[in-house]
Amino acid sequence: MLVNEHPSTPKPATSGIPGFDERLSVPWWWYLPAVGVAALLGAEIHMGYPGLRSWIGYAVVVPVAVGVLVWLGRTRVRVREGRLHAGEESVAVDSIGRVEVIRDRDAKQVALGPDLDPAAHLLHRAWIRPVVRLEITDPDADVPYWVISVSDPDRLLAALGR
Q1: DSSP string, 73-115
Q2: 3-class SS of residue 34
């Protein structure tokens, strides 16, 4: 019988604020129709060429279709080292004021339509329903607020210390 000599190992020292890292990837099932459509396009090319050249369509179009979906889902939203990174932009967590989570479809439509300030930083992915509106309190910032899509806004708020 094995006995655990150290039943309670100490927890690592952390700042107490959980981190956040989310990749805004497309749903997995989007790959099925994308490969299907690419295969149909490859078949069109296949019918036009004899011999070995007939497979060039499949070899080019299918990887391009998969590559486009990977490219669409490459954007990340992260909170680390006191900064919120959304795509290529970042802001200090201390410069974030009021935070609003928008989960309802109609409210999201209003937030991204008539209520959207053209100067706002927008990182929206249509396949992710919730968006978070973050007020930027830094007087030197050139944007009044950010609107970003995240699938787990509660974890983002916890990482921001809200």
Answers
A1: T--EEEEETTEEEETTEEEEGGGEEEEEEE-SHHHHHHHHTTT
A2: helix
Ordered per-residue pLDDT tens for the chain, 162 residues: 333 333 433 344 445 556 899 999 999 999 999 999 999 999 988 888 878 888 888 999 999 999 999 999 999 999 998 999 999 999 999 999 999 999 999 999 999 999 999 999 999 999 999 999 999 999 898 999 999 999 999 999 999 987
Single-letter residue type at 128: I
The packing angle between helices 31-48 and 56-72, to 10°, is 160
Per the rule left: phi > 0, alpha: psi between -120 and 50, beta: everything else, 23 is beta
